Amino acid sequence: MGYTHPMTDALVPRVEDFDEISALLALAFHGSPEPELREVQRAVFEPDRALLVRDGGTAVAHAGAYTRELTVPGAAVPAAHVTMVGVAPTHRRRGLLTGLMRRQLREVRDAGREPVAVLWASEGRIYPRFGYGLAAQHLTLSCDTTELRLPEPAAAEGPLRLDRPAAHQAELARLYDRVRADRPGWSSRDERWWAYVLADVKTLRDGATERRVLLHEGPTGLDGYALYRTKAEWGRGGPCGEVRVDEVVAADPGAYVALWRLLLSIDLTRRLSFGAAAVDEPLLRLVNEPRQLGAHLDDALWVRLVDVPAALAARRYAVDVDMVVEVTDELLPENAGRWRLAGGPSGATCGATTAPAQLACDVRALGELYLGGAGLGALAAAGRVRELVPGTLAAAGPAFGWHRAPAPMEVF
Ligand SMILES: CC(=O)SCCNC(=O)CCNC(=O)[C@H](O)C(C)(C)COP(=O)(O)OP(=O)(O)OC[C@H]1O[C@@H](n2cnc3c(N)ncnc32)[C@H](O)[C@@H]1OP(=O)(O)O
C-alpha cells in the first residue's frame, strides 16, 4: 500500500513499532540502531502522541512528542516537546514533514492542554515555516583550563563528594526542581526523564569515563551538583586530559563556584568542555579571563505558540504591559487576529479585541519572544515586528524580557 497524503495516512503507532521507528531515525540521522540507546529512548517514548507514515508497510516518516512542562518567565506551562522527527532519504522533499507538522500542531491545539510546542532543531532552517521561533540560545564552552582562575572563596566552601549519579536521583531531582522554577527553558523531569538524563550509554562516551556526579553540601543539605566525565590524554608535554561537563545545577552562588573550582582544576586535565552553558552563564562573570572560556553561540529551543492568548496569558512580564498586537498565523488560523495583552510581574490576561493594534507580527516572532531571550527591539529592527503606534516598542520591549536568560538543559 503506498501513501497518498500524509495528513490522512499518518498513523498513531503502537509501542511495538518503536524498533522500526528507531531504525528509521538512525537512517535519517546517519547512525546505526544502537541497542542500549534504543532502550533508553523507548522508556520515554509516547506512542499515543506519535505519528508514523508507512509506504508499502515500511516506516518512512515519523514525528513524536513528549508530555512535559517548560519553565517560562514566572511560570511553568505544559508544552508539547516535539522530537524524533525524521523522513527516510528515499521519501524526502515530498511534503511528508509538512503533513506531519500540520497534523501534530492541529492535534495539540484541539486537545487544548498545551498552549506551546517546543523543540531542538537539527537544522535551523527547517521549522520557521511551521511557526517556530528561535526562543533560546546556548553557549558551548571549550576552555584551556590552565588559563582560567576563579576568585578565592570569601568563606569556607562546603564539602564536595563524588559518586555514581543514579545513587542520588531523588536528591538531584529535588534540587533541579528548586532551581528550575527560576530558569526559563528548563523542562520538567519525572522519574522516567531522570532515568533518561542519567543513562550513560557506553557507545556515546567517546573514550571518556563513565559519568560522575559531584555533590556540594550546603548548610541545609545538597545545594549544587555537576554531572561530568573525564577523558585521559597524554601529549609531548605530559598530561592534557579533558573534563566534559554535562550539567551544573546550583541553588547558591557559593555552591556554584565550589563546583566549578573543582571542575576547572582536576589533576592531569588541561581542557574542559561544557555544551549546556547559558547565554548569561555566571562563569562568564567569575573567571579572570572570560575569552579563554572559548564560548560559541548556538541555537537551542524553538518555540511555537499553539494557542496565542493562552500562551501569552500563561507567562509573566518583567514590567507592566498593556497593548494590542495583530498576529498572523497561516497554519492555525484561530491564532490570527488582534489580541489585547495586559500583564506584569504577577500575571497576565490576553483576549480578542477590536481595538486598533499597536504592534503587528507573525506567530513565529511571538514564539521567539516567549521565553524572554529575544529582544522586541531586535525583532523590530529586523523588520519582523512592526510598530504601528510610535512608542510601543520602548514601552513593551522591557516587559517581554526577563531577569534570567532562557537556558535549556538536555537535548530531548
Ligand atoms: C525536532 C527534531 O526531531 S529535529 C530533527 C529533524 N530531522 C532531521 O534533521 C533528520 C534528517 N532530515 C530529515 O529527516 C528530513 O529531511 C526532514 C524531516 C528535515 C524534512 O522532511 P521532508 O519530508 O523532506 O520535508 P518536506 O518535504 O515537508 O519539506 C518542506 C519544506 O521544507 C524544506 N526543507 C525541509 N527540510 C529541509 C532542510 N533540512 N534544509 C532545507 N530545507 C528543508 C523543503 O525544501 C520544503 O520546502 P518547500 O516547501 O519550499 O519546497
What report would you give on this structure?
- By secondary structure, this protein is α+β, with helices and mostly antiparallel strands.
- It has 3 domains: 6-131, 3-Layer(aba) Sandwich (Aminopeptidase); 139-299, 3-Layer(aba) Sandwich (Aminopeptidase), CATH 3.40.630; 307-400, SCP2 sterol-binding domain (Nonspecific Lipid-transfer Protein, Chain A, 2-Layer Sandwich), CATH 3.30.1050.10.
- 24% of the residues lie in helices and 33% in strands.
- The chain has 11 helices and 18 strands.
- The protein has helices spanning 6-9, 18-28, 35-42, 96-111, 169-180, 191-198, 253-263, 308-314, 363-369, 376-381, 392-400, and strands spanning 51-55, 58-72, 75-87, 116-120, 133-144, 160-163, 212-218, 221-231, 234-235, 238-239, 241-250, 269-277, 296-305, 321-328, 337-344, 347-352, 359-362, 385-387.
- The strands form 3 sheets. An 11-stranded mixed sheet has the order 1-2-3-4-13-5-12-11-8-7-6.
- A hairpin with a 2-residue loop joins strand 9 and strand 10 (238-239).
- The protein is globular, with a radius of gyration of 23 Å.
- Mean pLDDT is 96; it is low at 1-8.
- The structure holds acetyl coenzyme *A.
- Acetyl coenzyme *A binds next to strand 3, helix 4 and strand 4.
